[in-house]
Amino acid sequence: MYTRSVLKQGDIGIGVNKHQAYLNMFQQRGFIQTRNLQDGVYGPRTIQAVKEFQRYSSLSEDGVIGNATWDAIVNKIRELGIITNIPVADNNFFLSSGVTGISVFKMQEYLNEIAAENQCLRPVPVDGMYGPRTTTAVQMFQYLYDLNIDGVIGKATWDAIVNERNRITKSTQM
Is the distance from CB of 9 to CB of 47 less than 8 angstroms? Predict the structure, then answer.
């Protein structure tokens, strides 16, 4: 699937916040030079760090987190065996009903990858729109993984989805 949505300069929220933290993990390991503020605001330092990671990953260096860059970042986390538990800069950073964009799109993709392995979950349309079916899938995921059941993708649910997706995809590659 392809989405035209991206994370770019001026964006604010949980998707930016989490990617700033992922990029800082790469900076700590020497893959890139620029250290980000983990404030959830996509500014000049985030653009520079993204460009450095894109160069490291042999991607087009545009400083924007689109589908290919998002996949490269999350796949590198999986490759390194990192289990994320990243705080967010603002408790108002979350995905919920009515939100649209690449963060929703990728969470829908990951929920579907998990659903392919866990028959208790139902797949959802991957359209980047956080509607009733996504809310229900998130609630079911939260129930199955012993999280607070609110249908919202906040810090704990985001990390649980990414970690479970990476666990599943890593085990299917072995």
Answer: yes
Which of left, alpha, beta for 88 (phi over 0: left; psi -120 to 50: alpha)? beta
3-state SS class at 119: coil
Residues 128 and 76 both lie in one domain: no
Considering just the CA atoms, what is the radius of gyration of the chain in Å? Answer: 15
Cα separation, 37 vs 14, in Å, equals: 13
Cα separation, 24 vs 16, in Å, equals 12
* 106 and 161 Cβ atoms separated by less than 8 Å: no
pLDDT in the model for residue 174: 57
Domain enclosing residue 35, as ranges: 14-80
Residue 161: left (phi > 0), alpha (psi -120 to 50), or beta? alpha
Low-confidence ranges of the chain (pLDDT < 50): 1-2
Instruction: Give how far the C-alpha of residue 40 lies from the chain's centroid of Cα atoms, to the nearest Å.
Output: 13
